[in-house]
Specification:
0% strand; mainly alpha
């Protein structure tokens, strides 16, 4: 009878957990959280309820509670790679990068084929300045999951930082091929093409990025820089102006507008831009040089 009773309780718990998970997946986090919490009230060592509640609380910004439940999950079942990986992501979001690296390495130790953990480790190593090791991690993530478009993009960024834009371009293009609306990859590709003096191609790529997301102020600014370097000042001015409308405290774009006003001999408007830049960022040294002329 006891076995039957225990089996019934376990079955009911499983059904309740599935109900919570359905709410969780549908974005009804408050209902899911209540059910997970209720399960843990009677079964504090329920691994799945602890893990899923930790994930939900991480997603909703309840960092302290999320950490508690993820660490509880690992205490109950140390051989749980996804829990180590999620805890690492939590630490990374809190700026505890070294703790995050430890968690990602633990996840990889438990499951060497967990591509996401290699990718996350690459990002954390990059933050710590370990660029070469980050490259190794991104390459491993891609080997394990060739469809991992974010890993292709981030590997490209690492290569660009090392001055290997020709090689990086292949990874940006692969990321775009895998995810055609991945605006970050277009922006990174455009920047790489510009550095290689492939101006026409760079402009085309930035225009594609803006067709996907017209509010990407960084794409507008970078396109403006390229157009300005190509002596297309009016088009550059339009890009900077649009960027500032989207992000009014975008100091580099405001400064660039000031420089173009100066080129037009509209000194008062240039000074207004420079002063606005200093109001936002008093330490913007280059502006002091402009105003002292």
């Amino acid at each position: 009878k006891r076995k039957t009773k225990n089996a019934t309780a376990a079955n009911n718990s499983e059904k309740t957990l599935k109900k919570a998970l359905k709410f969780h997946r549908n974005g009804n986090f408050s209902k899911a959280e209540k059910i997970y919490t209720k399960i843990l009230g009677s079964e504090p060592n329920n691994i799945n309820a602890n893990y899923l509640l930790g994930m939900l609380q991480f997603k909703t910004g309840q960092m302290e509670n999320a950490q508690k439940h993820l660490e509880k999950t690992i205490d109950i079942q140390p051989d749980f790679p996804a829990a180590h990986n999620t805890l690492g992501s939590l630490f990374n979001s809190l700026g505890k990068t070294e703790s995050a690296v430890t968690c990602f390495k633990n996840a990889i130790e438990k499951d060497p084929k967990l591509a996401e953990a290699h990718y996350n480790l690459g990002n954390a190593l990059n933050t710590l300045g370990n660029k070469d090791k980050a490259i190794i991690s991104f390459k491993k993530a891609i080997t394990l999951n060739p469809q991992f478009f974010q890993a292709h993009n981030n590997l490209g960024l690492q290569l660009s930082e090392k001055g290997c834009d020709n090689e990086a371009i292949d990874y940006y293009k692969k990321a775009i091929a895998l995810q055609p609306d991945f605006v970050d990859a277009y922006i990174n590709l455009g920047n790489a093409l510009h550095r290689l003096d492939l101006t026409g191609q760079a402009i085309h790529i930035f225009e594609k990025a803006l067709a996907l997301d017209a509010n990407r102020f960084d794409a507008l600014y970078n396109l403006g820089r390229i157009l300005e370097s190509d002596y297309r000042y009016d088009e550059a001015f339009d890009c900077y102006e649009r960027a500032v409308r989207i992000k009014p405290d975008f100091t580099v774009a405001i400064h660039s507008l000031g420089n173009l006003y100066q080129n037009r001999n509209q000194s008062e408007l240039a000074i207004q831009c420079y002063r606005k830049t200093l109001h936002i960022d008093p330490g913007y040294a280059e502006i002091w040089r402009e105003l002292s002329r």
